[in-house]
Amino acid sequence: MIDKDNIPQHVAIIMDGNGRWAKERGLPRAAGHRAGIGRVREIVDSANALGIKVITFFAFSTENWSRPKTEVVMLMRALNHFLDKELKNLDRKKFRLKIIGGTEPLPRYLLKRIREAEEQTKDNTGMVVVLALNYGSRQEIVEAAKKFALAVLKEKEALESLDIEKFSAYLNTAGLPDPDLLIRTSGEMRISNFLLWQLSYAELYFPKIYWPDFTAQDLAAAVEAYQNRERRFGKV
Q1: Number of structural domains found in the chain
Q2: Domain with 188 in it: what CATH number?
Q3: pLDDT tens track, the chain, 236 positions
Q4: Is 16 among the residues known to form the active site?
Q5: Measuring CA to CA, which of 37, 92, 207, 235 is 20 to 30 A from 82?
Q6: Is 180 annotated as catalytic?
Q7: What is the per-residue pLDDT for 35?
Q8: CB of 125 closer than 8 Å to CB of 95
Q9: Does some domain include residue 2?
Q10: Does some domain include residue 33?
């Protein structure tokens, strides 16, 4: 049974296993990625029904550019198609869409769609759906350090004022609560340069199921596992 008074406010998900899911079925990797993207809608709706306030999906990392060009092109088009298809649904349900990550070298057509989607949903007050796209956490931290240093040089900030809360305001996730729960599907037990700063006190959950098979019931099981843990934050 899920305790409605102990729901993780922010759940982050590394959607892993698309390629292996496809390979085991004798399908091309592209089929696995399409199935994985299609899984997002069910999990978004399930998260909202559970009372989760923010859900973040690791959609494409800065390291993923090293994959075959044909696969990268397909992923960019599939993400664009997802935004085309789902934007009206997200907006109707009052969800706010936020994209985190670098803009270069994303294709122009995708950047245009991202900006339109964020603008259209910016005033929505429901659950926040975050897509980490062309995202790398080490790069994010370096960029945040540069931004703060520039603010100091321009005398907009004092070096002595820097603390954890202030530094967090320079990250891509500024204004969002840190994740309470990280889920990585496929059984791999790595964070893979994802939200390194923000995951400092998150509970980690590694189901063996591949992402295209991850259902609302699996999300509920992850939340139950979270609720069965004692979070001490360094205390006794």
Answers
A1: 1
A2: 3.40.1180.10
A3: 899 999 999 999 999 999 999 999 999 998 999 999 999 999 999 999 999 999 999 999 999 999 999 999 999 999 999 998 899 999 999 999 999 999 989 999 999 999 999 999 999 999 999 999 999 999 999 999 999 999 999 999 999 999 999 999 999 999 999 999 999 999 999 999 999 999 999 999 999 999 999 999 999 999 999 999 987 777 76
A4: yes
A5: 207
A6: no
A7: 94
A8: no
A9: no
A10: yes
- What is the extent of the structural domain holding 220? 10-134+178-227
Of the residues 64, 80, 124, 193, which is catalytic? 64
